[in-house]
Design goal:
Chain lengths: 155, 114
C-alpha cells in the first residue's frame, strides 16, 4: 500500500486533535462516541465490547506513545480509521508503560477486507517508525497537516 | 434489538477474534508488527461467560452454523440474505417480524432486521 492510498482512509470528521479522556477505556469510549456521531457505527456497545476483548488479548499500545486499537465487528459497515491525539497522554497500559498520545483506531467489518486491514496496520506502524514522524504527529492540530505528515499532498 | 440477538452478535465478534488469533499466518503477522498476543486464555474465558447468558437452543444453532460459515448471524440490509445472496420472502419485512430472529430458508443463517 502506498502513501496516497493510505491517506484515502483518513477523513476530516474522523480526527480528534484533542482527546480529553486520560484513562484507557474512557479514551476508547470517547473515540467510539465520535465515530458513532458520524454514522459509521451501527451500535457503539458492540464496538466497545470488541475493543475491550482485543485489549485483554494484549495491549495495542505498542509503546513510544502510539497505539493501534483494532478489530472486526458486525457493527461496522466499512473499513474505518479514526485518528486521535491526546495532548496530555493516556494511560493505555502500553508495552513500555509510557503514556499514549497518538491513536490510530482501525475498525473492519466482520465479513470482508481482512487483507486490507492488516496491510493498513502494517503501513501505519512502519510510518510511525520513520524519523521525526512521531514528533510531527504529536504536534498535529489540523487535518491538512495530518495528511501531509502521512505522506499525502494535503488535498 | 432483543437481548438474545445482541448477545449472539457479541459472541460472533468474539469468536472471529479468537479464530484470527489462532490462525497462524494472521497471528504471526501481528506479532511481527510488535503486538503481544498473550491473552488468548482471557478471550476464551470471556467467551464461556458470554455463551452462558444465551439460551442453549440458540447457542446450539449458532455453533452448528459457525462450523460451516464465517458468520452465523447477519443483519438484513436489503432484500437478499447477506450470507448466500438469495432473495428473502417479503413477509420478512412485515412489522410482525421486526423483533424476531429470522432464518434464511436457503442457507439457514440467522437474520435480524436492523
Ligand atoms: Zn442465506
Amino acid at each position: 500500500m502506498d502513501a496516497n492510498k493510505l491517506v484515502t482512509f483518513f477523513e476530516e470528521d474522523l480526527c480528534i486533535f484533542s482527546l480529553r479522556s486520560r484513562k484507557k477505556f474512557s479514551a476508547l469510549q470517547e473515540m467510539i462516541r465520535h465515530l458513532a456521531g458520524t454514522g459509521r457505527v451501527s451500535d457503539e456497545h458492540f464496538i466497545m465490547e470488541m475493543l475491550k476483548n482485543r485489549e485483554s488479548l494484549g495491549s495495542t499500545g505498542l509503546g513510544k506513545g502510539v497505539a493501534f486499537p483494532h478489530g472486526r465487528s458486525l457493527a461496522i459497515k466499512e473499513l474505518t480509521i479514526l485518528f486521535a491525539r491526546s495532548p496530555g497522554g493516556v494511560d493505555f497500559e502500553a508495552l513500555d508503560s509510557k503514556p499514549t498520545r497518538i491513536f490510530f483506531l482501525i475498525l473492519a467489518p466482520s465479513d470482508k477486507g481482512a487483507d486490507t486491514y492488516l496491510a493498513l496496520l502494517s503501513e501505519l506502524i512502519s510510518l510511525v517508525q520513520k524519523p521525526n514522524k512521531l514528533g510531527e504527529l504529536n504536534k498535529v492540530k489540523d487535518y491538512k497537516t495530518l495528511i501531509e505528515i502521512l505522506g499525502g499532498n494535503g488535498n | 434489538m432483543k437481548e438474545e440477538f445482541r448477545l449472539l452478535i457479541a459472541l460472533q465478534d468474539l469468536d472471529i477474534m479468537i479464530k484470527e488469533t489462532k490462525d497462524q499466518s494472521t497471528s504471526e503477522e501481528l506479532k511481527n508488527l510488535g503486538f503481544k498476543l498473550t491473552g488468548l486464555k482471557e478471550l476464551q474465558e470471556a467467551r464461556v461467560k458470554l455463551a452462558r447468558k444465551i439460551p442453549p437452543v440458540l447457542i446450539n444453532r449458532y455453533e452448528k452454523l459457525m462450523e460451516h460459515y464465517t458468520m452465523a448471524i447477519l443483519p438484513v440490509t436489503s432484500d437478499k440474505c447477506l450470507g448466500c445472496f438469495v432473495r428473502l420472502p417479503s413477509v420478512f419485512f412485515s412489522a410482525a417480524h421486526s423483533h424476531r430472529l429470522l432464518t434464511c430458508e436457503n442457507c439457514g443463517r440467522m437474520l435480524y432486521l436492523l
